[in-house]
Amino acid sequence: MAATALTVGSTAFFGYKMYQSASGSEIEIGFENDLVSQVVQEELFSAETIAFWPSPNRSLVVAAEDINSELGISVISPALTAERLRAAGIATSIETMTAGERAQTFYAAAEALNADFIVTLTMIGTETDSNVFSIRRSTYTANYDVVVYSHSSNAEVWTSRLIAELGIGRNIPSQSEIDEVAGRAVADRIIDFSEGDFIVSYIDGETPEIRLVERRSPSSILLP
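Structure (tokenized):
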């Protein structure tokens, strides 16, 4: 067995952290279909500016604030990004774009913004599970697509499905609170990457199945 330094990812669900909303509710954040390139650590080390994509909610406003305070990197807020891209004639509705269109848009946006990274978080839907036939209490889940684009690599260096889940009880947070928690989680993951802390999967040498999904240092990832 030998160490590897390749791009790593997982098609499994990874439970990340439990967060508390402003109103006191616990919201569990997980990631699904997670893919991260290890070049992101080195690129974050030398990055000067991160731009946050326009969003109809406060998720990326919160993420921008956390990144700025924790990493000390200059940030371009969603509102300022929207203003500059509108002036440059660059579309921001990435949810309707093909993969090729999105790649072209991110490159043009990074050039216009003079940004090293672009961060997007798109709400894709919510669902409620009443758990009628289960002892578990009812849950509410909000789903988001997250993308981090690197101008240096001209590639998406992190893509994932962010899942925010909470049990439905007497104290139900607003959607705005859930969005803010999602933004905090995105910022925390980017901070993880800057420290070389990646979410990876590895294959059990005795079976063809993914056995574990863990957070590990890249230098300790072992594949058969």
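Residues 1-8, 201-224 have pLDDT under 50 and may be disordered. The chain is about 30% helix and 40% strand.
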